[in-house]
Amino acid sequence: MVENNINIQNPVLSIRNLSIAYDEKKFAVKDVNALIERNAITAIMGPSGCGKSTLLRAINRMHELYPKIITKGEILLNGQSIYEMQTIQLRRKIGMVFQRPNPFPTMSIYDNVIAGYKLNGIKLNKDQRDDIVEKSLNDVTLWDEVKDSLFKKGTFLSGGQQQRLCIARTLAFNPEVILLDEPTSALDPIATAKVEELLVDLKKKYTIVLVTHNMSQAARISDNSMFMYLGELIEYGKTEAMFTNPKNPKTEEYLTGKFG
Amino acid sequence: MNLGSDIAYIDTFHRRKVRNTIFKIIVIVLSVITTSPIILILSKLIIEGVGQINLDFFTQLAPDTFQAMSAKMSGEKIPGGIVNGITGTLFLVLLASLIAIPIGIMAGIYLYENGSKRYTNLIRNIADIMQGIPSIVLGIIGYIWIVKNITHGFSALAGSVALAIMMLPLIIRSTEETMKMVPESIKEAGAALGVPYHRIILKVMIPSSFSGLMTGILLAVSRIIGETAPLLLTTLGSPVINFEIDKPTSAVPLLIWNFYNDPNMIDLIWSSSLFLMGFVLILNLISKRIIAHREKN
Fold this sequence. Notes:
Chain A has helices spanning 52-59, 87-93, 109-113, 115-119, 126-139, 143-146, 159-171, 189-202, 215-221, 239-244, 249-255; strands at residues 3-5, 13-21, 27-36, 41-45, 70-77, 80-81, 94-97, 177-181, 207-211, 224-229, 232-238. Chain A is α/β, with parallel strands linked by helices. Chain A has one domain: P-loop containing nucleotide triphosphate hydrolases (Rossmann fold), CATH 3.40.50.300. In chain A, the strands form two sheets. Chain A has a seven-stranded mixed sheet with strand order 1-11-10-4-9-8-7, with helices on both faces. In chain A, strands 3-2-5-6 form a four-stranded antiparallel sheet, with helices on one face. Chain A starts with a strand and ends in a 5-residue tail after the last helix. By secondary structure, chain B is mainly alpha-helical. Chain B has two domains: 3-52; 83-296, MetI-like fold (Orthogonal Bundle). Chain B is built from 13 helices and no strands. Classes of the chains: A alpha/beta, B mainly alpha. The A-B interface holds A 60, 62, 65, 87-92, 95-96, 98, 100, 102-106, 115-116, 118-121, 155, 166, 169-170, 173 and B 183, 185-186, 188-196, 199-200, 203-204, 207-208, 210, 297.
């Protein structure tokens, strides 16, 4: 039984009856229904193996990289089914940032930012390129730190800077939604704080969906929270309400640290 | 305090020390034995061969028996060089690489992408078995496939096909191993940007594993560069410089074989062998450099 305590008008994403299985019997995500609020941070929480990463990956169809995956139900982006879109178009609109910073090791900082264009063979002239690089790096507050070393390898940056570079790479496509899969779990507290600050800032322009293991992080920065357990969406609501007054006993047990 | 057990303790301690020393000596002697052949071979080649190496050695064609005999009778140095062998070897290596590198890299990518499927394991095992095929057998294959049926005569093509077959398993396995070392997250980064699969392979995976691929290729080249047996049956040898794929071609190891069979030219064996060893050594050093460079980054 889903405790759905949230009323969202004009959602960016609507997830409808979504079930995902890695093989016939083992469902990783079971019949999830949720609307995602525009220009807000939505956190997905839950213990390991609860299907939160799978759900996140399904939103830009990254889960299809696994062979034999079974997907039922649908996800609509602004009312249009994402399974009817081409993956390149979809992933331009819904970007993704991963747990470990993963800049392309052979590319400079500059090339990493425009990697989406370069790797897809989209031609840009020099002014356009410079514009995108400067704007994207400014958006992630990295420009001042790297503007003198744009042509050095991205892998020379610190972990936190690399993660912000990866966010910049996603922003370069000017997406509507940014998905982040535990983006700070490999970072130190200072770098984590910077990324969190950045996310709060970015929600003015983008919709952010964040998977996190860290409950205090969800409490600090998210507007809405989902709690998942064993593939099911147990509770979905305003973060403040959910943390102060969880409706489902399972949510309460998780939030008070009884398991997870 | 028991004096007897103390003495026994000192005794075993002493015996341990002796055993340790004996073991150390054995290890040192054995390692000297294993390294000495390379030192003996190199010093022999340098002593006997270095006198023949001059500009002519790299620019002149190999002498014929008559030239060598008359030089020998008048007590002069044997004239000529091995330029037809050097160019031939380079030409054969180039052709073999053109055949083996694309096929080997693609097969390696296939193995990497398909992990442990039954068919993949079959290919992997075949590649391992291919490494064990005696090179003379590949010479015979080159003779039957190419010399008899395609070029209708001894040819550079036939030799390079035989050499390419020798290179293939090395390139396939090294490609697979290097690709495995590229973190999965880099591939995901590409996919998350909507990059199609073939572009991820070409623009992300191959550049990221470039140094590894180069090392594999260099090792494969140094493996085939001294091969004689497959060439005897396929490219035969040639007294002139040849860059046509359907004509017989010389190669340094073939020249060494010729020099060995001609009592007048036996002196040239040393310099040619020295050249070949130097070449392989340089290739090995380059690939070591690449590996060291990669590990640093």
